[in-house]
User: Fold this.
Amino acid sequence: MVTKRPPHPVTTEASLRSQAARTLLKLFDSLYEGAVAIDREARIVWMNDKYRALLGWNGTEPIEGRPVEEVIPDSLMRRVVDTGRADLLDVFTVNKRQMVVSRIPLFDERGKVTGALGIILYDRLQALKPLVSKFQRMHEDLARARRELAAGRGAKYSISQFVGQSGRVRELKEQAMRAAERDSTVLLLGETGTGKELLAHAIHAASPRASRPLVGINTAAIPESLLEGELFGAAPGAYTGAGPKDRPGKFQLADGGTLFLDEVGDMPLTLQAKLLRVLQEREVEPLGSNRLIPVDVRVIAATSRDLRRMVEQGSFRADLYYRLNVLPLVIPPLRERLSDLPALCAAILEGMALSAGGRIREVSASAIARLARHDWPGNVRELKNILEQAVAATEAATLGSGHFDGLLPDGRAIQDLPSPEGVAAVRPLREVMAEAERAAILSALDAAGGVRAHAARALGISRAQFYEKLSAHGLLSENPVRQRAV
Assistant:
């Protein structure tokens, strides 16, 4: 007779979980100096004897069901069940003893937090002091490197360094301070050499983003084929010569801070559309990549061009113009604030003396009067160049009118200026230069057979600049080649 073996008892999923839980608790009890488990309401459901002993808990009093903070003062376990985020490594004090602890959230099969487990990884922190000291040194080195990097990409100027006390300049400074308080896009409008870059640095320095990077790029100085990668970054192998690693663009480098787009009026139309998208969506797509990278950047743009006229001519996108022209600031040319000449000369000469180590020169009243007669097409940048040349040519402590002979267009001292009748016979420099420019444009068009793109290339200017000059000379709507032939 064959006896039947009794069937094996069926092991249910619930019993397996219960066995696993008991096994894990035993493992934690044997491996760690202390362990505790809490439920979703941060009530203790289990604590091993080692942890009880560290706390000095009376073994006769029940510990289960009590709020964790009642048993472990200043416990952070509740934060773990509230956030669902682990504290994998932390230093916690128990009865004046510092310990290395870890706090881990527990989840059910639906991903819902059901509780948390806390374990003491090490209860003799003193033995870890060499490791902790090394970590602190590495952290300090990293913080110092970050400060140095931020300083290298920080603002170089403040609003007080924009020299001048004329009414136009005082109004401009007030506008710049108001712009610094806001996070909107700023558009700086002014002729070349008026101080647009200085003002951009000053606005960033006075803004809440001052501790973050300030990254600048001159869109007119970079070839169109490279400009997209410079602005938005490039993926490995995106173009010939691209490196094997991702190359961040200026937007990524300026993340959290300010991006200064100088000469934005010279940006090609194809890139204007991509810039508009970045400003609208606050994310960049690196060249050769299909991933979008979010960026938090405040943009300050600058141009010496008439963007409104360029929009009318179709050489600048109207939607980008309105996106940039949120807080427009117009920087007056030097010829419209000649009362600031003495202060500007003093500031420039002082800066030259500090950088070169020499004595500070002065400018006489007659020399200021002579400088005031100049039209200053190059503005403050031209003034600095003239002063540098004058200082290099003499050892005199005070620059007189004669020290500017040959440096200014007239080449003569004020006392040697011709009579009013003679002055009336001289044509204004602006008219002479305009006539020469018009003749050069017509000559280039003749040589290019009327093809404007070729003419612009021959003159060494962008098509946008070329169309602007055609409009300025009244040549845009006509055939300049035919007109000249007539």
Notes: The CA atoms of residues 233 and 387 lie 41 Å apart. Residues 411-426, 480-486 have pLDDT under 50 and may be disordered.
